[in-house]
Amino acid sequence: MRFVAGLLIPLTCASAALAEEAPRLRDDEWPIRSTGRLALDGGLVMGRALTLDTGMATGVGAGLTYGRRFAVGARAAWASASETSLVWSVTHDDYRLRGVAVVQQPVGRGVFGLRLGAGASIVHESRTRNQGQRAGLTGSALMGSTTALLPGGELEAVVSVHVAGPWLLAVSGGPAAVDDGGLRAGWTAQFGVGWQP
Amino acid sequence: MRRAALALLGALALEACGKLQGVGGPAPPLVSFTATLSGDPTTLLPTGVPDVHALRVALVWGAQWLTEPFCVLPADTTVAQPPGFAGPAAVIAAGCRDPFGFVPANVAASVPLDPTGPTSISLPDLPAPDLLVGDVMARVAYASLVVFDDRDDSGTLDLAFPHRTATGRFRAGGDLMNKDVPDSPDVIYGASFVTMTEPDRRVAYREGDFLPSAFYPRMGCAPPPVAFSVLGAGGFTPQAGLAAALMNELPAEDPATCTESAPGDTTVDVAARAPAEVQEVGCDEATADGSIRYRPPPTDEPDFTGRLLACAHLPTFDTGSQPSTLIQLVVTGRPTDRCKGLTHYTLRGCREDVTCDVPDWDLTQGPPAWWPCP
Predict the structure, then answer these.
(1) pLDDT attached to residue A7
(2) 3-state SS, residue B2
């Protein structure tokens, strides 16, 4: 009997604690001060390595837009991907420069949008011959590099949530493509913070 | 400012001409060697071979191999030989390969040979770790450039094994452990590295430090350079090699005969020779540590046609002890075999240790009816 009581008392207390509703966030707490047309954001970028047959590219990106429901802007990002075959170790550094057009709709503290970007991808390729250093290769026989300028673009869904003051949490992602003599499609995503005065 | 921007744009435009290759594209060789053939193989055709079909040159990595004691110890003369037996000395002469010879482990590359000029042979890969002798801080591999007639058009040098006679040992499934692979028709006409008792030109690959060892030693010569190189040595006599081995030393080369060069700086000339003189560079070995695979005699007498036989005590390096009471029957290969090799039969023993305490077979109380040795 004492054992059963010992079990029931803590459970009852726990239920009572759950029944008490947590205090809600009032509108005057964490006030939002974003009223301007300019918005900046930046964060971590990841996505499929578009110029390699396989692999994941990771890096950083940032951009700005100007406007309200319809906005335009520019973005820049760098993402790097490395892959290895039996013969080569390859690294692609992808520098993306995009002009963007955004259609967005505020909902509560958040903003939902669709962002279309188009521009150039400057891809720097570094290739190293596997086993070459052990074999005594040097110079261009051991490693080489080249850079290519490729047209590319993305169509991303964008979700921004105002957190406090001018600061936002920004998440975006969607399909991406570059033209490397043939269309290479993949996806890209960004997770970061935004600033809208 | 404007000039700098224009320069940057110009550089970008030039760079933009590049074509991304990713992990694709051709695999450039890690190293290339140049070989020539001197002499005319058509004047050296072995019996039964009407012509030279397709000459090729192969790069063959060498194995670390140790001959078996029976082949280097003095022939046992204390066992009475049955009628028709050649005896241990004749069996050693006919069945043991050159203890200082090059033993192949792996054919890394093979290309058609230009009989009138230099031929380039390239390696796309480094020698695998099992071909490198030493630890990871100091290891080396050696190779021989072998000229051969690819008579079966396989595109590579097919290594051969000795043809041993039948065993009486059974596998777990009940089949006799007799596996015999026929010799390929490839004919070897020359090699840059045939034996340590002759002048040689060998391909070397070194990683890390170099520690002199009994792996195709070049005592007295400079260490091989790091990575790939082509080395030369004048060779030593068999007597000097055996004497050095007995003194636990490495046989010395004449330093005046030693050469070291980068792969691109030298051409390796391979002299055409009678196939009988060089065919052992294409003979692989099942065991590399000098251990002997003893076999139980089968119930029925194996086909010993064309082979030489001898009864002998088990060999021992301990000259002060009594010889083993166990007598082995030693059988050579056939004269037509491409590779030399011995078959060892004992009435009692284990496959890898004939003196094992619990034998895998013991026929001492009931040997097969054909067993000829005492």
Answers:
(1) 46
(2) helix
Q: Confirm if B99 and B72 have CB atoms less than 8 A apart.
A: yes
Q: What is the mean pLDDT of chain B?
A: 89
Torsion of CA A48, A51, A53, A57, to 10 degrees: -30
DSSP summary character for residue A32: B
State which H helix or E strand residue A15 sits in: helix A2-19
Tell me the C-alpha distance between B157 and A88, whole Å: 28
Which distant-in-sequence residues (6+ apart) come within 8 Å of A20 by Cβ? none
Q: Print the SS3 string covering B130-177.
A: HHCEEECCEEEEEEEEEEEECCCCCCCCCCECCCCCCCCCECCCCCEC
What is the spatial distance between Cα B70 and Cα B162, in angstroms, rounded to a whole number? 16
Tell me the C-alpha distance between A187 and A155, whole Å: 9
Task: Say whether A131 and B31 touch across the interface (CB within 8 A).
Answer: no
What is the identity of the amino acid at B336?
Answer: T
Q: What's the pLDDT score for residue B94?
A: 95
B27: chain A residues, CB-CB within 8 Å: 86-88
Q: Write phi, then psi, for B263 (nearest 5 degrees).
A: -55, -35
pLDDT at B173: 52
pLDDT tens for residues A23-64?
A: 665 656 667 766 789 999 999 999 999 999 889 999 999 999
Going by the DSSP 8-state scheme, the letter that residue B252 receives in this structure is B
Calculate the CA dihedral of residues A11, A15, A16, A20 and round it to 10 degrees: 150
What's the confidence (pLDDT) of residue A3? 47
Angle B314-B317-B323 (CA atoms, 0-180°, nearest 5)? 40
pLDDT in tens, A76-125: 999 999 999 999 999 999 999 999 999 999 988 889 999 999 999 999 99
- Give A170 to chain B, closest Cα distance, Å: 32
Single-letter code of the amino acid located at B55: L
pTM of the model: 0.81
Comparing B159-168, B171-180, B215-224, B325-334, which segment has the lowest mean pLDDT?
Answer: B171-180
Question: What is the spatial distance between Cα B216 and Cα B218, in angstroms, rounded to a whole number?
Answer: 7
d(CA A116, CA A129): 38
Element containing residue B241 per DSSP (H, E): helix B238-246
Are A88 and B126 an interchain contact pair (Cβ–Cβ within 8 Å)?
no
> Checking DSSP bridges between strand B31-38 and strand B267-271, what pairing results, if any?
parallel
How far apart are the CA of B146 and the nearest CA of chain A, in angstroms?
22
Rounded distance between C-alpha atoms, residue A2 and residue A5, angstroms: 5
Residue whose token pair is 């007498």: B301
pLDDT digits (tens, 9 = 90+) for B73-103: 888 888 899 999 999 999 999 999 999 999 9
Rounded mean pLDDT, B54-58: 97
Query: Distance (Å, rounded) from C-alpha B35 to C-alpha B122?
Result: 11
Q: What is d(CA A32, CA B194) in angstroms, rounded to the nearest whole number? A: 86
Residues of A in contact with B30 (CB under 8 A): 129, 131-132, 135, 137
